[in-house]
Amino acid sequence: MAIVTRVTQTRRPGRYNIYLDNEFAFAVAEKILLDFNLFKGTEVNAEQRVAIETAEYAQKAYQKALVYATGTMRSVQQVRQKLKEADFPDDVIDQAIERLVQVDILKDQKFAEEYVSTQMQRGKLGPKGVSFKLRQYGVDRFTIDDTLVAYDEVTEYENLMQQVEPLFDKYQRSSVYLAQQKVSNKLYQSGFNGHLIKRALSEYLDEHEPDDEQEMANFNREIEKLAERYVDYSGWDYQQKMKAGMYRRGFNLKQVDRWLKEHSS
Questions:
Q1: b/e for 119-137, b at 16 or more Cβ within 10 A?
Q2: For the chain, N or C: smaller number of CB within 10 Å?
Q3: What is the pLDDT of residue 122?
Q4: Low-confidence residues of the chain, pLDDT below 70?
Q5: What CATH number corresponds to the domain at position 169?
Q6: 92 touches 57 (CB < 8 A)
Q7: Which pLDDT does position 262 carry in this prediction?
């Protein structure tokens, strides 16, 4: 049987060094100090020491989870993964998560609600994109469906319209046709609904006249690149490769034919 002969505070707030029989034994969190009454004069047998060290290990896991979960809203799965990366065993992880759930720090419903609200404000993801992200964070389908009710179609369309013009600006060096495809694909990938994407693109194109000068500059740049690439080809092979390349880039084949005639040797 050992006796606590000295207790000193460590440099880290809330942690204490415990000395048994005048020799350093271990350091513990304040909670463990109080739970086990580790003050001067307390007797500690071998079984109690094992219990103290086990509780201290569990407290470390809890403290790590607490810091991670309170810095930013986290899902249960995120916290579990963080503790796994720190090599805590599953039973210790389960205890830490249960404690956080009990004090309402960790709750997937709350996490999902905040995540949906944030993404609605940012406007970069549609409902399907938000749903996909929440599934990655381990939130169950029913919770996702419940929280996504807040992401209504009006908000989704407003978010779509805020992205359409910047995306067209981003792809302005592509042909008009290819730019439309790229914008549409990007919005699909971001989880917006197809019928709203079509409506948003239609509205944008109705309000914005095609830039013929930009389209011609894009055409000339791309066809000159291809002409360089296929300089070693001639005749029918050259024409087919040029047409296929420009078709993939969304340009009009009649325009390509005219260029080939003008530049035929």
A1: bbeebebbbbbbbebbeeb
A2: C
A3: 96
A4: 265
A5: 1.10.10
A6: yes
A7: 86
Q: Does 61 map to a domain? A: no
User: Measured on CA atoms in the order 186, 187, 191, 193, is the torsion positive or negative?
Assistant: negative
Residue 64 resides in a domain: no
22: left (phi over 0), alpha (psi -120 to 50) or beta: left
Classify residue 42 by its DSSP letter: -
- 3-class SS at 243? helix
pLDDT for residue 71: 79
- Indicate whether 137 and 157 sit together in one domain: no
Burial code (b: 16+ CB inside 10 Å, e: under 16) for 167-196 equals bbeebeebbbebbbebbbebbeebbbbeeb
pLDDT value of position 1: 84
- Distance between alpha carbon 187 and the CA centroid of its chain, in Å? 17
Q: What CA–CA distance (Å, rounded) separates 263 from 265?
A: 6
Planar angle of CA 75, 80, 84, nearest 5 degrees? 150
Contacts of 198 (CB under 8 A, 6+ apart): 184
Q: What is the pLDDT of residues 126-139, one digit of tens each?
A: 999 999 999 999 99
The boundaries of the domain holding residue 7 are 1-44
pTM of the full structure: 0.78
Contact 181, 171 (CB under 8 A): no
Among 207, 233, 248, where does a domain finish? 207
Give 136-152 pLDDT, tens digit per residue: 999 999 999 999 999 99
